[in-house]
Design a protein that fits this description.
Length: about 700
């Protein structure tokens, strides 16, 4: 740190007092109080103490924390101290702290000039020679590790390059792949005489370097040497054909015709780069199918490989290229469902009243039939899905039927919302509503009818004249090509046997889960018949056999029969057998007695599948169905046990509900079935009832 001192008598600077304000320095008991001088410079400090009997001296402090000449501190004293008159007070003031140096632009300077420039600076300069022809010998080339304008600290060593002339030789570079223009730029500042010669070549692209004349890349030549360079020019050659790459295309299907153009993107050019138009000198020579048969055009509807031969002619030279078009099966996906969205409002509307509305599930039947309740109206009804026909999984079982039903169950169970949309006839011939079934997941609407088709769980049926005809047409045709599921795959869980496993009815019921969707053969006596379906009993155990809508006159009460190929199923949690076929039934005997056991209402769960009798029931109420004429009679036995008597739609046609009056007494017999977690007696007909009143 550099310091300097001033010892000055205040009276010497008395002339400052005339231009400054009167001192307000306090004097207490003849002592002078040192005042705060923050922000004051030397002249201002002298003026403030001009009238005081003090000797003021100054020292300096190199610092950048204060302005130049600004008060820093009292030395040995502090602000507010009281001192005796006549003493010396030393004050420290700031001077700038300089610790760095800015490097100058030395272009064109010699070593001597550079040394002179830095002679009075606290930096060490060293010089090194560097070979170059870009700068005159003896002149500045560059700083080493720095550049002009950089700020460096005092005490640093700065190395500076000074030009030294190169040996007057030049190494010829490798010019392969370079054009004449690029070569001219490369040699622009080199002291050589370059001449160019055009040489025809079919191996080197036109305009590019071929070779040096008399020299090779890597040779050293003196400056001023004549160098010849050969540049290629085009020689006539066969035309080129581009864009004829092999293509893989999905087979076209009904509703989704081919859009591929075999000429699109394919071009022919002569050796000068001019395009040869389609026609006399650029054409398709032939097209072959997978068997090498010459055909007129690619069949985009038939899977296979097709080879197209393109030919171009120029300067009597011919080029032929082959292009293979692979027509492949479309992917197994749901792109049609993914692209389709419900575009009409449904909020606050009722499907029953308005033809569109939100619903909730009451129960599942199979892949194309589900039972719903209208969220707005509260109506319960059955819906047959529009536009599809799924494999059976109720009265009869088809391969993929159960998987299709489970797919629908999984989708709708996990949906955020379900919306039904009507179109055309509102119901079918069986009293079921017809609808497009939309579901919402993750905020998007998806048409389940269409998705079932794309998942190969249903065939397209009756969609041709609907608003969604096109996506169904495309989905059905593309999915069929995949050969998936219903279109050719073996259902790994379907029992393809004819007879099924022979088993006693009791063992079947006790191990029913092992025989779900499996075929069995059972023998027993027909103990009851409701509609076309029957109840079969063997050794005191009984089971319901659902036969569907076809008449079954060959099945009569009292017949002992053996039936092959029945399929185990669960319906409303009740165990049953389905898939009855007349040809699979063998009559063993007739006129077998039917045992009817009289029980009380609290015993009904022990007689599922068997025929029982209830004496002297009192009718409590009638519970009608929401979807058809079926109804349930709620009654009490003499021990006040509740007994439910179910009258299905078939029996209700000749046993209407008005025959049963609350408070009336009846005796009734019939088979017992399970309905979810409860049990009920099925009423086969009026002959099963005795009216007591």
């Amino acid at each position: 740190m550099r310091k300097y001192y001033f010892v000055l008598l205040i009276i010497i600077f008395g002339f400052f007092a005339s231009s400054c304000e009167e001192s307000e320095i306090p004097v207490v008991d003849n002592k002078i109080t040192l005042i705060d001088l923050a922000g004051k410079i030397e002249e201002e400090i002298l003026a403030l103490y001009a009238n005081e009997d003090l000797t003021i001296t100054f020292s300096t402090l190199e610092t950048n924390d204060y302005s130049e000449n600004e008060f820093v501190r009292y030395i040995g004293y502090s602000i507010g101290d009281q001192v005796d008159p006549g003493i010396e007070i030393s004050i420290e003031i700031a001077i700038p702290l300089i610790t760095s140096f800015i490097l100058e632009d030395l272009s064109g300077k010699t070593q001597a000039e550079i040394s002179a420039i830095y002679a009075d600076t606290d930096v060490t300069i060293t010089f090194v020679l560097t070979k170059t022809n870009d700068v005159a010998p003896g002149l500045f080339v560059s700083y080493v590790g720095y550049q002009f304008g950089d700020e460096v600290d005092f005490g640093e060593t700065i190395t500076i390059q000074i030009a030294e002339p190169l040996v007057l030789k030049f190494t010829l570079p490798d010019l392969v792949g370079m054009t004449q223009t690029e070569i001219e730029v490369l040699f622009a500042d080199v002291d050589l005489v370059i001449t160019y010669r055009e040489v025809s070549s079919s191996e080197v692209p036109a305009g590019q370097f071929i070779k040096y004349g008399g020299f090779s890349a890597g040779n050293e030549v003196s400056f001023g040497t004549n160098i010849r360079i050969d540049i290629a020019v085009l020689a006539p050659s066969a035309p080129t054909i581009s864009g004829a790459d092999d293509e893989t295309i999905y087979a076209a299907v009904t509703g989704n015709p081919p859009t591929f153009d075999i000429f699109d993107g394919v071009h022919a050019y002569d050796y000068l780069g001019n395009e040869i138009p389609l026609g006399g000198f650029f054409f398709i020579l032939k097209i072959e199918d997978s068997a090498s048969n010459i055909i007129e055009a690619v069949d985009y509807y038939r899977v296979g490989d097709y080879t197209i031969y393109y030919q171009a002619i120029n300067s009597l030279l011919t080029t032929t290229v082959e292009r293979v078009i692979h027509i492949v099966i479309p992917p197994f996906d749901t792109d049609q469902t993914d692209a389709l969205r419900l575009d009409v409002t449904y909020t606050g509307l009722s499907f029953i009243d308005d033809g569109i509305g939100e619903v909730e599930i009451t129960s599942f039947t199979d892949a194309d039939t589900t039972n719903f309740v209208d969220v707005v109206s509260g109506d319960k009804f059955t819906v047959r899905y529009l536009g599809i026909d799924a494999p059976e999984a109720t009265s009869k079982y088809d391969p993929w039927g159960i998987k299709a039903a489970n797919f629908v169950r999984e989708i709708l169970t996990n949906a955020d919302k379900i919306i039904l949309q009507a179109e055309g006839d509102r119901t079918d011939g069986n009293g079921r509503y017809l609808a497009w079934v939309w579901y919402i997941v993750d905020g998007e609407t998806r048409l389940l009818n269409l998705e079932i088709v794309e998942q190969a769980y249903a065939w397209v049926s009756g969609a041709t004249t609907t608003q969604y005809a096109t996506p169904f047409e495309i989905a059905g045709a593309e999915t069929q090509l995949t050969g998936k599921r219903i279109y050719g795959e073996i259902d790994p869980d379907y029992d393809y046997s004819t007879e099924g496993t022979p088993i006693e009815i009791g063992i079947l019921i006790d191990t029913f889960d092992d025989y779900l969707a499996r075929k069995v053969t059972v023998t027993g006596i027909i103990t009851s018949k409701v509609g076309n379906s029957i109840y079969l009993e063997q050794n005191g155990r009984g089971i319901y056999i659902y036969t569907g809508y076809n008449p079954t006159n060959e099945l009569q009460i009292g017949y002992e029969v053996t039936i092959q190929g029945l399929v185990g199923a669960v319906y409303y949690e009740g165990k049953q057998l389905s898939d009855y076929k007349y040809e699979n039934m063998q009559l063993e005997s007739i006129d077998n007695p039917v045992v009817i056991t009289t029980i009380m209402g609290n015993q009904i769960g022990n007689y599922v599948g068997r025929v029982v009798n209830f004496e002297n029931l009192t009718i409590q109420s009638i519970d009608p169905s929401d979807t058809n004429n079926a109804y349930t009679i709620i009654a009490k036995d003499d021990l006040n046990n509740t007994v439910n008597i179910r009258v299905d739609d078939y029996t209700a046609s000749f046993a209407p509900s008005y025959l049963f009056v609350s408070g009336a007494h009846i005796s009734v017999f019939g088979p017992v079935t399970q309905f979810y977690s409860t049990y009920q007696l099925m009423l086969p007909g009026l002959g099963n009832i005795e009216f007591k009143d």
